Amino acid sequence: MIGTNETTTRRLAAFSLLFFSLLSFAAAQPTLRVSAQDYEDYSRVIVTFPSSLPITLEKDGNLLLVRISSTSPFRLRTEPVKSRFIKSFSWVTSGDLYIIVIEVRHERFRQDSFQIEKKRQLVIDFYELAEPPAGEAVGLEAPQVPPELEKKEEPPSAVEVTPPPVEGSSAAAKGIRTIVIDPGHGGLEVGAKGKFGTLEKDITLAISLRLKALIEKNLAFHVELTRDRDIDVTLENRAAIANNHRAELFISVHANSSYRRNANGSETFFLSLNATDEEARRLAYLENNSADFDKPLATENKDDIMMILWDMAQSAYLKQSQRLAEIIQDELNSLLGTKDRGIKQAPFKVLTGVACPAVLVESAFISNPEEERDLVQEAFQENVAQAIYRGLVRYIRLLS
Questions:
Q1: What are phi and psi of 267, to 5 degrees?
Q2: What are the φ/ψ torsions at residue 41 (nearest 5 degrees)?
């Protein structure tokens, strides 16, 4: 009996060791996470990777295939799908090739994608297309994963980002034909300065040029810059440029600054006589070229803003400006992976004379050394431009 008990004990110990070894192995494996979330006019899928991996996307009927090449194994973890448009997630593997299969409820969709490098995330936005004309055949069976799965392909090193286009005719019919982009500061007015010597005026121009290129490439609108090089432009002339070109939208691009070195993230402002908080008030003074933060607004400035709000029916523009600010801020949060600082209001002079919806975007804090390093990177500048562009697209769709 003693021998039998010892044998049983050893077997149990061996089994326990094997069991916990398998658990430890599974726990040690990197995890790839997939989740879905619905927004007002689209559904978003976020794929979070354990490391940077080559990815390609392929649409096949009502499926979107995310092909991943990885020599290291990983696990897939999906959150419960509660989406009006995304039906399910699944995946298949073959050697070093992994395919995440995103099943959409029907094949009448298009998607665009972008990556958040810091968070190792792929973001895919799904837009539902209109119903087909009456009598047009619609496939009922969902296509299967293609047989070439068994082949080992060499995918490119990154996802190709395709900005979402907007039909110019429908948008133009709603009145949007000219967009004015305002690169903050310029010339002798350098704006804020970072610890490593980065100047706000250089960052704002770089982002604005990228944003202009995106809009002109994908939208049927004319884009005007208040400056396209390092020159002085007064705040009054920036508004005049927008009004002279009969702009329907005005976006002023800036880099934020704070006395708090750890302040971080993006902010989007629209015009108000009263600032949202003390920090917003100080920022407005800084952008308005006032060095004295302690004095209240001069009486004549208050009168100017009140006249603008009254004479230009700015209350209507403010509602539109607020909606545009909300959408752009949402895109900045998603694309840059920063915390949501929300939208704010402040008496920015550059916005006061503009006769159209107008917002001021503070892309990141140049006073924060870490974000200063980001701001000089071309990839980060492109991401900021992409975020503002996507916000514009969503706003224009709302008007359509």
A1: -140, 145
A2: -130, 15
